[in-house]
Design goal:
Structural class: alpha+beta
CATH topology: 2,3-Dihydroxybiphenyl 1,2-Dioxygenase, domain 1
CATH architecture: Roll
Strand content: 35-45%
Distance between the termini: 45 Å
Protein name: Glyoxalase family protein
CATH class: Alpha Beta
Strand order of the largest sheet: 2-3-4-1-13-16-15-14
Organism: Loktanella atrilutea
Number of strands: 16
Helix content: 10-25%
InterPro entries: Extradiol_RC_dioxygenase (IPR052537), Glyas_Bleomycin-R_OHBP_Dase (IPR029068), Glyas_Fos-R_dOase_dom (IPR004360), VOC_core (IPR037523)
Number of helices: 5
Pfam family, one: Glyoxalase
Radius of gyration: 18 Å
Length: 309
C-alpha cells in the first residue's frame, strides 16, 4: 500500500464559456482565480485555476473552457460530484446564494453531513458540505466572509457500474474503507490535504458517461514532491497500470493513468506552486503562457475570450 498520496490536489473539468465559468467560480463561489493560462495541448483554449489565496493543493478547481462545447452526458465511469468544505452553520447562506446563481439547488444529508447540492450552467454537479473540523484558511470576498467561505475540497463522488476494482485501487493508494450506505461506499485518507474523502457510487445498470461541457476531465491526487511521485509511478507500473512519463505542468509535475472504470487519474506534486511566476498579491491576473506557447502571445491576447474581470 502506498503512503505518499495526500488526498486530492485538484479537479479539472470542461466548460462551454470562459467568462461565465470565471464569473461563477469567482463571484458566486467566491474562489480566487490563481492562474490564467492556456491548455498545453490546445493553446487557443484557456486553462483557468480557482482556489484559495495561493492555490493550496486540495483547494483548486480548474477548467478547460472550450467555447460552445456540447454538453456531456452524465453516467458511470466519471467523477459525478465534486464537494467543497464549508463551515458549520453556513448552509443557509449557501442555499440562498446558490439559489440565485445555480440550478437544482437542494439541501440533503449524506453520510451524516449536511450539504447543499447544485449544478452549474453546464450541468456539472457540485455540493458544499458542512465540515466541523476543517481549519484550512479561506479566500474571502465578493460578499463571502470567513464564517461562510469555502475551505477547499471535501472530496468527490465517482460513479461506476462496478466499484470493486476502484475500491482496490483506492486502498492501494492509501485510502481506507470507512462506511457503506445504500449503494455508496466512503473511503478516507488520513493526514492529507483536507480533501480526504472519495465516495464510490455503484450504478450497475447506468450507461457510461460521454465527456463534454459539464464533465470532469480528470481528478488529481497530491504528493509532496517529485521523489514521492516517482515512487508512486513505479508502484503503479509494477501493479500493471499504464502510467505516463512525468510531465512538467509549470506549477506542478504530473503523471496520468486510466483507471479500470474509465476515470482519468493524475498524481500531481505540491511543488513548485502557483506563485512560481507571479507575486502572490497578483495571482491569476496576467495571462501566463507555457514557454513553448509564448510565441503565440500576440494572437492569444487578441483572440482569447475576455473574462470580464
Amino acid at each position: 500500500m502506498l503512503n505518499q498520496i495526500k488526498g486530492l490536489h485538484h479537479v479539472t473539468s470542461i466548460a462551454s464559456d470562459a467568462a461565465e465559468n470565471n464569473a461563477f467560480f469567482t463571484k458566486a463561489l467566491g474562489l480566487r482565480r490563481v492562474k490564467k493560462t492556456v491548455n498545453f495541448d490546445a493553446p487557443d483554449v484557456y486553462h483557468l485555476y480557482y482556489g484559495d489565496e495561493v492555490g493550496t493543493p486540495g483547494s483548486v478547481m480548474t477548467y478547460f473552457p472550450f467555447h460552445d462545447a456540447a454538453r456531456g452526458r452524465h453516467g458511470t465511469g466519471e467523477v459525478g460530484e465534486t464537494v467543497f468544505s464549508v463551515p458549520k452553520g453556513s448552509l443557509g447562506f449557501w442555499g440562498h446564494r446558490l439559489g440565485a446563481a445555480a440550478a437544482d439547488v437542494e439541501k440533503v444529508s449524506h453520510f451524516g453531513e449536511d450539504r447543499v447540492k447544485f449544478r452549474t450552467f453546464d450541468g456539472e454537479s457540485f455540493a458544499v458540505a458542512e465540515v466541523a473540523d476543517d481549519t484550512r484558511g479561506a479566500w474571502t470576498g465578493n460578499g463571502i466572509d470567513a464564517d461562510h467561505a469555502i475551505r477547499g475540497f471535501h472530496g468527490a463522488t465517482m460513479r461506476l457500474q462496478d466499484t470493486g476494482a476502484m475500491a482496490e485501487l483506492l486502498q492501494f493508494m492509501g485510502y481506507q474503507k470507512a462506511e457503506t450506505r445504500d449503494n455508496v461506499t466512503r473511503f478516507i485518507i488520513e493526514g492529507g490535504t483536507g480533501a480526504d474523502t472519495i465516495d464510490l457510487e455503484s450504478l450497475k445498470t447506468t450507461p457510461h458517461a460521454s465527456q463534454g461541457a459539464g464533465s470532469v476531465h480528470h481528478i488529481a491526487f497530491a504528493v509532496e514532491n517529485r521523489a514521492a511521485q516517482l515512487e508512486v509511478r513505479k508502484a503503479l507500473l509494477d501493479t500493471g497500470y499504464q502510467v505516463t512519463p512525468v510531465i512538467d505542468r509549470d506549477y506542478f509535475w504530473a503523471i496520468y493513468f486510466r483507471t479500470p472504470g474509465g476515470i482519468l487519474f493524475e498524481v500531481a506534486t505540491n511543488e513548485p506552486g502557483f506563485d512560481r511566476d507571479e507575486d502572490r498579491a497578483y495571482l491569476g491576473e496576467a495571462l501566463k503562457l507555457p514557454t513553448q506557447h509564448e510565441r503565440l502571445r500576440p494572437f492569444l491576447e487578441q483572440n482569447l475570450q475576455p473574462l470580464g474581470d
